[in-house]
Amino acid sequence: MKVRDILAHKGSAVVTVRPDTSVATAVHRLMLERIGALIVSDDGSRVLGIVSERDIVRVVAERGAEALAPDLTLEEIMTRHVLTCGLEDTVKDLMTTMTQRRIRHLPVVESGKLVGIVSIGDVVKNRLEEVELEANVLREYIHLQ
Q1: For 49-84, b where at least 16 C-beta lie within 10 A, e where not — what string?
Q2: Which pLDDT does position 22 carry in this prediction?
Q3: Pairing relation of β-strands 49-52 and 37-40?
Q4: What is the residue extent of each domain of the chain?
Q5: Most buried pick, 34, 71, 126, 142, via CB within 10 A?
Q6: Could you say which residues of the chain have pLDDT below 50?
Q7: pTM for the full predicted model
């Protein structure tokens, strides 16, 4: 199974925000969208960074209430070196990367453009579906014997 297959099932919509977005606005957006990360982009297709719930928690721990001041922007707190994946990457590759690097979101980039995002939840769901399918095939095989 590949990233292409996951996006075909879940969709390729990605929530992006501009780098000058305030942290407070980003927190509200995460809550409204019920997601764990926002892609920071100036044009909706180029990945400049990523801001996750972890980044928000870190800045709140460091700065307290100041973290939600209107003048603190995502550009100041975002993760700039974003790991990405491509449409042809395998679920196994994603599992390895996410586990080893301790990340929960991978933007999907093709030809320099953002085309989707995959979360650890998407990967786990996909793997569970594969295991269930394998179990059903084995049950049918045993039943036919």
Answers
A1: bbbbeebbeebeeeeeeebbeeebbbbebbeeebeb
A2: 96
A3: antiparallel
A4: 3-144
A5: 126
A6: none
A7: 0.86
The CA-based dihedral angle spanning residues 117, 121, 123, 124, taken in that order and rounded to the nearest 10 degrees: 180
d(CA 88, CA 2): 6
Question: pLDDT per residue over 95-114, tens digit each?
Answer: 999 999 999 999 999 999 99
Strands 37-40 and 16-17: parallel
Query: Running DSSP on this structure, what letter comes out for residue 49?
Result: E
pLDDT of residue 13: 92
Query: Beta-strand (E) ranges in the chain?
Result: 16-17, 37-40, 49-52, 105-110, 113-119
Q: State how far the alpha carbon of 132 is from the alpha carbons of 2, 7, 32, 126, 138, in Å.
A: 17, 20, 32, 10, 10
Give per-residue burial for 25-44: e unless 16+ CB within 10 Å, then b: bbbeebeeeebebbbbbeee
Q: How far apart are CA 52 and CA 58, in angstroms?
A: 10
CATH class of 3-144: alpha beta
